[in-house]
Amino acid sequence: MDYKKLAELLYPDVDKTIDYYLKKYPKRNLPNKAEVMRIAPSPTGYLHTGHAYSAFISRATTRKTNGVFYFRLEDTDQKRLIDNAGTIAYDMLCYYDMKPDEGYTGDNKPQIGEYGNYIQSKRLDIYKCFAKHLVSIGRAFPCFCEKSENKEDILNKRQEQIENTGTIIDKDVCRNLTYEQIEQNIKDKKPFALKLLSCGDINKTFKFHDLIKGNREIRQNTKDIVLVKSNGIPPYSFAHVVDDTLMGTTIVVRGEEWFPSLASHLEIFNAFGFKPPKYAHTPVICKLDENSNKRKLSKRKDPEADVRYFIEQGYPVVSVMEYLLNLLNSDFELWRKNNAFTSYKDFDFKIEKIGSNNPMFDFNKLNDVSKNCISKFNKDEVYQQLTTWAKVYDNDFYNILTKDEDYTKLVLNIDRENSKPRKDIAKWSDVKNLYGYMFNLFNPNSKSDYQLDGVDLQKLKEVCSCYINVYNENDDKQTWFNNIKDMANSLGYATDNKLYKENPQNFKGNVSDVCMFLRIAITGLKDSPDLYSICSILKKEKVVEMLNKISLIK
RNA sequence: GGCCUUAUGGUCAAGAGGUUAAGACGCCGCCCUCUCAAGGCGGAAUCACGAGUUCGAUUCUCGUUAAGGCUACCA
Known about the structure:
By secondary structure, this protein is mainly alpha-helical. It contains 22 helices and 14 strands.
């Protein structure tokens, strides 16, 4: 067959050659070893935690190598597009401190960089040109078969084929059409999809090096995969080859679900004579479902699959990033221990250190990482981040927090900014429960608001009414505690831990019980940070008020 | 059905042909302490199974099993 003639028949209006584009987008002028990487989400939903995970790899690697990290919007699936999803994805990247250097920056916003357009649906002329080229060299052919409209049909068809033939037919029937047949179809205005004329041999393999998976032996591709859909838009595989070539991508980071189609992508690169990029196929973040089965984080079922979830909950950006970094490079943890106050960005991140099994999302660990991160913030940072969060997600609390900034900072500074900082806040939404009593969010008139289970109310009242006369807000911490001890002693409580443990029956209780009573009266809670700090911040009037209030509880 | 990938405690995992098989989260205990958090100390808990290679295998090979993925004109 005369392929050049066929190319003209299929794409009469394409007047450019691929050389035009290859010249238009020349090799990037970058330092040695600089990597060019991208995040290329499809705007079919909100930015997935898995995307953030792979974006992190690209952002860290390009930062380290002085390369380029760009954003390309892969909006080639017209059916599944969701409004605004691209913009949100970009905003999320910026929010998580992974702002791309180049590319798409949101719908209707100017793009950055010389290698655009960075929106695939705006690149159809380019794809057409490259498609024509493949036809002209005999590596692509039109397929006029009717397509299946939905996933279910496709699945059924596949099952049918498996049952009838025991396998899946990968050589498309239309590859055998004669020029005349094709010409007739074109004349009849039949739509066609362009397919790859695969030359692969299923029994032959080639060697391949994946940055994460290491050396592999891969079977050649034999499938005549679709290059351009009948609507003129390419699916991922073809767009990937064209775009990553033109945009100069040097490393493609993608989920390992792409690994099986790698051979087909390489065959396309090969057909063009292009050098493929390096690849890093990442593991997929999973979670344990109700039945204790490991499965991929699902956008529909798992709130933590959407990166906005962490914002809503009030996890600081660094917490989420450090948690992801933990999953990616497990030696980060050790580094963090030795470099407590260095930015996670200074960690020498290595793609090769990424493990190859699918990690499970672990909230325990995230919380721990986050508590450590927050414990290193000073009171101003905490105040700033907490109020920024509350303004959006808990406006009532925001108003309370900002009413008296100095007071709020005093509260937030309890056990903070010292060598053994308090680690009780994992996310900003915790603060209300942890410190609500400092902001009048605890009702001293309601018995049910006190944690009183297992508490002797009579003893409690006795201690509290006694303490009203003892409390002096000008005492320093030691005096304050000595006074409590003296009072405890006079009421028949032990003030020596060992003595109490040896003969508890000799005492009404321990001085710790006395403190517990006071704590309940003042905060409603059995557990709280340092009582002395709390009383100092609340001031005498409030302390006395609380001590009086509890005596009225029946 | 075929193909691909993975398999070290509950979780994240380091690790190497010979190790008392790191470390972190979680859990438990003790210490400290006004409680909690933190901190200190300690504990329980792991090499999926079966063959083969080897003096020796958790590590290499092959099977089995399990889990995940792909097999779309989705990405």
